[in-house]
Amino acid sequence: MTLVESSLRARGRGRAGLLIVVALAAAVLAYVVAGSLGSSAVQRGGVPSARAAATGIAAQPATLVVRAPRRPRRAWQVIATVGGTPAAWLSSEGGATMVRFDQKLVRLDLHAGKHDGGTKGWRYGDKIAPSESARLIAAFNGGFKLTYKDTGFMANGHVAVPLKPGLASLVTYSNGRSDIGAWQRGFPSGTSPVFSVLQNQYLLVDHGVPATNLSSCVIECWGGTVHLATAVARSALGITSDGQLVWAAGEQLSPAELARALIGAGAQRAIELDINPWWVAGYVYLHRTGRPKPVPLIPRQRGIEGALLEPYSRDFLAFVGV
Question: Has this prediction a pTM greater than 0.85?
Answer without folding.
Answer: no
